[in-house]
Amino acid sequence: MNTAVTGGNAQSVSLSTRSLPSGVTASFNPATVTAGQSATLTLSASSTAQGGTYQVTVVGTAGSTTHEASYSLTVGNDQPPTNDFSVSVSPSSASVQAGKSASATLSTKVTSGSAQSLTLSAGAPSGVTVSFSPATITAGQSSTVMIAASSSTAAGTYTISLNAAGTVSHAASFSLTVTGGGGGDGGGTAWAAYTSYKVGDVVTYNGVSYRCIQAHTSMPGWEPSNVPALWQRL
Fold first, then answer.
1. Into how many domains does the chain fold?
2. In a shared domain, residues 49 and 89
3. Residue 3 pLDDT > 70, yes or no?
């Protein structure tokens, strides 16, 4: 804030402001000068000050004489950006046989603020398991997703939620179609008594698939569901 003598002798000038917006304060250093001297004006905006551009009037008073100057003040109400991110998965769908698996890539991207640590998880139906490698990443990184359908998973299409959680959480959807399910691996002949079975043979019994784990000749009462020492349910 500068002053100048325009006529006569230098006189004492008191400095003040008016038209300050709400939440803004002003101070002068010094608050009184002799005409021809300068002062520093400091304007401070509180956190409650509303953003915008305002015209502040600076007043210099010497006795009965007053002079004014206009100052343009812009108040910004921007807050530090919130740390946030987006999630996507590619491919977003797959079709597998029961007992098989598919893979995808879960990608993240910082959308505001700084990168944060993210913990990955999944919401999957019964019979479907999901694993991440790695299971913890930093926003902006990717993870490999393995999605496995057990041999007993019923055929159908399932929506799997792939979740990433930090200070906020986001998810991407993956559509998994399982074929040949509902009874194990979708293969095998019907179990029968008085039949020779070798290790690895697959049979069905009451709609469920079993794999032979010990060679034998079946007898009545040795149905796969009754003798887990001979048969492993799929």
1. 3
2. no
3. no
